[in-house]
Protein: Putative ECF RNA polymerase sigma factor SigI
Organism: Pacificibacter marinus
Amino acid sequence: MTKTVPGSTARTIAAAKELDRVMRLDRGRLIAALAAGLRDLSLAEDVLQEAAVSALKHWGRSGLPTSPQGWLLQVARCKAIDRLRSAKRSKLQTEALAILTDDDADPDTNVIPDHRLRLIFACCHPALDPKSRVALTLRTVCGLTTVEIARAFLDNDTTMGQRLSRAKAKISAAGIPFAVPDPELWPARLDAVLTTVYLIFTTGYIAGPNEPRDLCLEAEYLMRLIDQLRPNDAEIEGALAMMLLTAARRAARIGDDGASLPPAEQNRTLWDSARITEGRSILARAVKRNDAGPFQIKAAIADCQMAEPAPDWLQIAALYRALWQYEPTSVVALNSAVAMAEAGQTEHALEWVESLADQLSDYQPWHATRAALLAKTGNYSQSAAAYRHAIATAPGQAEALFLELRLAALPQT
């Protein structure tokens, strides 16, 4: 019979909680630091997972280290060295082994090198298709699960898992560098990076500010870092402005009843005036460069949604038409229809939305938009059916409650 050591259970519980916290908050930074030396994303993930297993055992027995992050990084590096020494190595792996063995990292330090921007550029390399770039960055840098990423892309879990595996294998096989590219290579790589950070932001915005990982702040940090590395770029400034202007409304996004609120119905006193001021200043600076692009247009749309005393929907509709020139997608068309409806062109907007059925039948906002427009045109029975579909596939509880309230408000037929 095994005798329980006093306090061991408490230490094990504390170790598990701390490991979970570190892996949720710092996984991206740790993976980036490992991948920068290993130049192998799959190996970086494997050795970090092995280090996590060791942590649960050792921390539960001996207590928490001074720096859990530093401990994990050093142990993961040691495990990587063991693997590389025992394997038949390529030239790249030999170089990685030399880098790791020369590293004298302090396991007690809380300062983990921030190589996340290097990792983003590797994940956004032109050798990968656009969808894989974004998915891989969300997985490695921000630690989103395969299920969460699949939902964002309207994919099933198995398909997304296979996509991620292929992308990591391609990075390794092609020897894609984990480095920030030279300035002359930025234009070819920048759009994919901005799109990636933008999706990180929107994922966090939907999740809300009370999640353990505030992805909005992570995305804002990364965008500011990109802006510092390449100053005076209109599209980088536009992307940062868009994030700031959108994030400024977060505190007002959920009403007292727990339902999400569109900008026109929000309590403006809850908006973050500092972020609005900074966002508008950055957007004005970007526009003066006379180098228009989609992120500047998106920032302008976010600004118009906060116009006093109400959103300028005619201007917003015009901006979506301008955005269509850069991004002729079904989602842009849907948002343009929403603006048209708000500007009073409901019938035309509904026709436009119906024409997008084949492309967006699996897209939850299409059903929500269609439900609202059907209600406005008096088609209450069809509206109710569309609302039920939108509620069943809502991305969060607040969004579902908002739609439930709209459904309940429909006249009984």
User: Anything to note?
Assistant: Residues 8-38 form the longest helix (31 residues). DSSP finds 20 helices and no strands in the chain.
